Amino acid sequence: KEGVCIDNVSFKYPNSSRAALKNVSFNINPGETIALVGANGAGKSTLVKLLCGLYRPDQGSITFDGVDLSVINKDSLAENVSVVFQDFMLYNVTARENIWYGNVKRPQSDEEIVLSAQKSGIDKLITTLPNEYDTVLGTLFKDSEMLSVGEWQRIALSRSFFNNAQLVVLDEPTSSLDAFTESRLIENFKAITKDRTAIIVSHRLSTIHLADRIVVLNERGVAEVGTPSELLEKKA
Ligand code: ADP
Ligand code: ADP
């Protein structure tokens, strides 16, 4: 079956007494963008971790184009699934090298790197080190070359642009951004999810509106599924 099938997935952390995910099922059609929403603790981050193979479901399965994501090896997983984590997971090397190291399929040339950096508007910044950035990781920065959180985020997005993975997962891509920076990045999200199957975990309405459908999680599993207009109009 094409697209993503999340079938009756349950998961409990070893040190926890209650399930983080309980009987979660939904499908994502090929090319579709899903917004994953739900209260704190509903299991959104856990589902992201299962999607990128950090954990395996205790029960149920997650397949992408018919392939079980919990059984394929790490390299093929990384070729199929590109994740932009909430905390960016950037290495303390230049943006250029972040785009390089962050991908299993290595860039073939510097031009390729510059191109993916251009797509998220950071091509002028590719020789800057993350520790010259803002305080997200609590690192000191040199004020001469300080980058904003938004620029940092865009480096993480560039990595995903370079990666041709057909499934892209954005975990709270705008949570640390102000509304202005977010609005400038919306175009990047559109570009990154275009022609790919995508999941965006987000609370922000402007980001949720990008999705074809919204999946609402709660502690009992999938609470609701619907288009943005169906769900948001109902709430209004
Ligand atoms: P969300 O991303 O929707 O806020 P999470 O996936 O982070 O939800 O959390 C789902 C549940 O799993 C919560 O009850 C949370 O406390 C628990 N949880 C998350 N991460 C861990 C962990 N590493 N160890 C134990 N419990 C965890
Ligand atoms: P998010 O904002 O994505 O929901 P959280 O702030 O809930 O993430 O979690 C931050 C980190 O703390 C994650 O790595 C998560 O796995 C971990 N975590 C969350 N809840 C617990 C818990 N009950 N026990 C241990 N670790 C947890």
UniProtKB/TrEMBL annotation:
<protein>
    <submittedName>
        <fullName>ATP-binding cassette, subfamily B</fullName>
    </submittedName>
</protein>
<feature type="domain" description="ABC transporter">
    <location>
        <begin position="4"/>
        <end position="236"/>
    </location>
</feature>
